[in-house]
Design a protein that fits this description.
By secondary structure, the protein is mainly α. The chain has one domain (about 1-260): Up-down Bundle (Cytochrome Bc1 Complex, Chain C), CATH 1.20.810. The chain is built from 13 helices and two strands; from the N terminus they run H-E-H-H-H-H-H-H-H-H-E-H-H-H-H. The protein has helices at about 1-10, 20-25, 25-45, 55-65, 70-100, 105-125, 135-145, 155-160, 170-200, 220-245, 270-280, 285-300, 315-335; strands spanning about 15, 220. It has a two-stranded antiparallel ribbon with strand order 1-2. The chain is globular, with a radius of gyration of 22 Å.
């Protein structure tokens, strides 16, 4: 039975064209690997973490300074979480531009969007847990954006904070989501995602004009052809993440002080595009209409008629313009905004 399950999850043979690294750049597998690493490092951190103000900060300090390899484990958990957002973003781009959003893979596009949302939620819910000045005020700013939503903004903000201000209730709520609801949802949806790929015939092979190998009918065994490649790539990615985490510490500032606002108060970097946009357009547009429009656009993409199994040129142009604008706003928010959100040079 175990063999049948294994071969249902991974077929015995795959098209030779599917072995081409540039077909997927290993992004989907890299995201799955990082999610697994996040689960393992998160479980280790959770042994010593205490989700209460003051105690939360002290427990993170204890992990970093006292626990054997605690600093390395926290560094890995922190940096992999941020890297995961970038990898998932690139994976979505790859899927779109390869044309793998159309039937029979349309449903899996929606599943991928759900996974991307959960990865953002995982990072955001974990951002507050160190309970230092950076995380406290970043979450305060990010949740304050919700107040611009009509009718439901204030109630939604108070529900997310567990009250009017960010406090002990907020920390408990974020901890519950970060260690329970979000990881469980992520891994259930990830299994469904991989099952859908298997059901659709494996990795999407581009049109025969761009990938003649795909139409030759040549198949190769998964073991060792694909398995060895996957293990080697996983080892390389893990080594790079480990090396980076050994030399670059996850930030930990002074303990959170609700009565002392830092000079630079910014949302987490993955929300800085929205925060930057608030300075240029009406808040209702930045927080409500634009996210609603982007979400609707992404959902409707697979229903827009394709041309030779690829998104049409105008659709790709709109996609690229949107990405470029998002990157510009995020870069300005990260490096060109100083105290009081004033424009400044980063050097």
């Amino acid at each position: 039975m175990s063999k049948n399950f294994f071969f249902h999850f991974r077929p015995r043979h795959i098209p030779a064209g599917a072995l081409c690294f540039t077909l997927t750049w290993g992004l989907g597998g890299m995201a799955a690997l990082m999610l697994t690493q996040q689960l393992l490092t998160g479980l280790l951190l959770n042994i010593f973490y205490q989700p209460l103000p003051v105690l939360a900060y002290q427990s993170v300090e204890h992990i970093q300074t006292t626990i054997f390899l605690g600093r390395l484990v926290r560094n890995m958990h922190h940096w992999i979480g941020h890297a995961l957002i970038i990898v998932v973003f690139l994976h979505l781009l790859r899927v779109f531009f390869s044309g793998a959003i159309y039937p029979p893979r349309r449903t899996n596009w929606f599943v991928g969007l759900g996974l991307a949302f959960l990865v953002l939620l995982a990072n955001f819910s974990g951002y507050l847990l160190p309970w230092d000045q950076l995380s406290y005020w970043a979450v305060t700013i990010a949740t304050s954006m919700l107040s611009y939503l009509p009718l439901i903004g204030i109630p939604l903000q108070e529900m997310l904070r567990g009250g009017e201000e960010v406090g002990a209730a907020t920390l408990q709520l974020f901890y519950f989501f970060h260690t329970g609801i979000v990881p469980a949802s992520l891994f259930l949806l990830l299994l469904y995602h991989f099952w859908f790929i298997r059901k659709a015939g494996g990795v999407y092979l581009p049109h025969k004009k761009t990938n003649p190998e795909a139409v030759k009918g040549k198949f190769v065994p998964v073991v060792p052809n694909l398995l060895v490649r996957e293990l080697a790539f996983a080892a390389i990615v893990t080594s790079l993440l480990l090396l980076f985490s050994m030399f670059v510490d996850a930030p930990l500032g002074a303990m959170a002080n609700p009565h002392l606002t830092p000079e630079r108060v910014k949302a987490p970097w993955y929300f800085l595009g929205a925060q930057e946009l608030l300075l240029h357009v009406h808040p209702l547009v930045a927080v409500f209409f634009l996210p609603l429009g982007i979400g609707s656009f992404l959902i409707l993409l697979p229903f827009i008629k394709a041309k030779e199994e690829q998104p049409q040129r105008w659709l790709r142009a709109v996609f690229v313009i949107g990405i470029v604008l998002l990157l510009i706003l995020t870069i300005i928010g990260i490096w060109f905004r100083g105290p009081g959100m004033r424009l400044m040079w980063p050097w």
